[in-house]
Amino acid sequence: METRIVTQLLTCMEGAAYSGSSNKPTGHVLVIGATNRIDAIDSALRRPGRFDREILVGIPDESAREEILF
Question: Angle at the Cα of 57 (from 51 to 63), degrees rounded to 5?
Fold first, then answer.
């Protein structure tokens, strides 16, 4: 990821947690990201309080693919 994109994403994520100029927490904010190249994600995004939980979604087997289609 390019540095400017990472910086912008971090700024947006930080801003989403606080309301306007009052700097008071807004409550719970859930941000979900997806990638097929976890090694390409900047470590600043993967630290606690950001994208700190990873859930592996594997490739579906044949029966699961059929279930998805029908």
Answer: 165
The position carrying tokens 């971090």 is 10
pTM attached to this predicted model: 0.58
d(CA 17, CA 2): 23
33-45 b/e with 16+ CB inside 10 Å = b?
eeeeeeeeebeee
Summarised one tens digit per residue, pLDDT across range 40-66 is 888 888 888 888 889 999 999 999 999
Domain that holds residue 56: 3-69
Domains held by the chain: number: 1
Give the separation between CA 66 and CA 43, rounded to whole angstroms.
37
